[in-house]
Amino acid sequence: MRVWVTLLLVCAGCGAFEFHPYELRGTHRDLHARSLERLLGAEPKQAFRFAVVGDMQLFLDDSAAAMRDLEQRGVDFVVQMGDLTEFGSTQEYEWGVELLSRLKVPFFVVMGNHDALGMGQKLYRRTFGPESFSFTYSGTRFVFFDSNSREYGFPGDIPDLQWLKTALAPEPAVHNTFTFSHVPPGNGDFDDALVEPLVKLQQKEGVAISFHGHVHQYHDVQAHGVRYITTDSMKGRSYLWVDVDGTSVQVRRATF
Amino acid sequence: MAAHGGLRASLLAALLLAAREARPEPAHEASPWYVPDHAAMQLAGAIGFLSAGPGWSFRDDTVETALLVGWAPPALAGEDFVTFTLKGQWRPFRLDAAGWSVRPLMVGAMLSYTVGDDYFAGLPSRYDRGYYWFRTALRPALLLGASAGRPVEALNLRLMEGYFELVATDYRLVQFVRNPATVNVELFTLALGVKLRF
Residue B155: which residues within 8 A CB-CB, separation 6 or more? Predict the structure, then answer.
């Protein structure tokens, strides 16, 4: 009997049991808070480098290759542009986190429409934290928000422009502002009624670059004074790396 | 929530009992096909913490089907999950030794339905056709397993079987096919269960 109970506990401990595909389980919790703690706790840097990787979805082995390539790149942190998962399942969240953790640097994950499926919103909040968050690192402000309007049935407050207005409010010590959201404005999955207000807000508050995923194709365009960049998916075997030094910003695309 | 849980637990028990009671006596008389000839109770396997329900066997127990109601409580799964699952199984071999009846191979498939507004079985109207190619409320899976059992006369059971199943749900299968290096052994999770054959 004792043997069986022990065996059962071992099986449960190593994750052999799954009670439901969308169960809220696992040890990964509040990862953004931990990433921030590490990032802001380290020696401040005048010049720094971060990477922006696209949709991972069904391209986990490609993502693993991206992580290997990124190891040589010496980035201070990584941003994943959403659609970490295809089905929004707990296990896929775990695979995504495991892949990003291979780099040993802090990482931040944008909420993608696939990640919100099923219990996805609760899984995201449990694993990473709130969908909308921002921080300032070495004089550059990073602002993340949820732009998956269609996923929630176009409720009118996705993206949450009220929140964004506050997050983008001018601050004296900020040289650059970058925003990160999954669906780019103008895409059919972005609330039509909010495209113009968002574009105007980003222009008014001097956003340098607005980063997006979702379309699985690299684009880099200037519109209304703001640079809009979408990333390839990981299937496209490319990612972006960004060098920031004061007000100087250089975005480069790496293929692997 | 506790009352909720109690209700579900008694529902599971009732289903098991119903399957048990539905069997007319004496047992050797051929029953109509729709009368269950076994009841199953399972731990894990992506359809709940516990699931249970009646089952039907054909062709000397080599072909089986079962209908399970599963439940995962918030204390264990972070949320309340209720599922209905239809299973089909094929167990081509039987080995009899020392009072045990062993089925060394089971291959099967299941389709589970998760109850609730957070999941869709048909694509909601906010999406264009084909926006998602899968349905979050419907979960197909492949099964691989084995079982062993023996008669328990004290309980009037023809056979009491213990089984294990390796469960490969759709998202694990699809991710494994495309990403074998990352997914690896996590293609499967484990389910354990008991079947009572009347």
Answer: B196
**B198 Cα to chain A: minimum distance (Å):** 26
Are residues A19 and B118, on separate chains, in Cβ contact within 8 Å?
no
Contacts of residue A187, defined as CB under 8 A and 6 or more positions apart, other chains included, come to: A214, A215
* ipTM tops 0.95: no
Give the pLDDT score at A13.
Answer: 64
Check if the beta carbon of residue A213 is closer than 8 Å to that of residue A190.
no
Q: Which residue of B has its CA nearest to A96?
A: B182
Compute the distance between CA of residue B44 and CA of residue B137 in angstroms, rounded to an integer.
Answer: 17
Domains annotated for chain A, with CATH where assigned, are 31-255 (3.60.21.10)
Where are the domains positioned within chain B?
2-25+35-114+140-197
For the stretch A36-67, pLDDT in tens is 999 999 988 999 999 999 999 999 999 999 99
pLDDT in tens, B108-141: 999 999 999 999 999 999 999 999 999 999 999 9
Q: Is residue A102 classed exposed, middle or buried when 0-12, 13-18 and 19+ CB atoms within 10 A define those classes? A: middle
Most B CBs within 10 A among A22, A122, A192, hence the mutation to make, goes to A22
Question: Which segments of chain A have a pLDDT < 50?
Answer: none
pLDDT of residue B25: 46
Q: In the 8-state DSSP scheme, what is residue A114?
A: G
Kindly state whether A95 is in contact with chain B, defined as any CB-CB distance less than 8 angstroms. yes
**Phi, psi (deg, nearest 5) at residue B88:** -130, 135
The alpha-carbon radius of gyration of chain A (Å, integer) is: 19
Q: How far is CA B84 from CA A156, A248, B66, B119, B134, in A?
A: 35, 57, 10, 14, 18
* pLDDT for res A120: 97
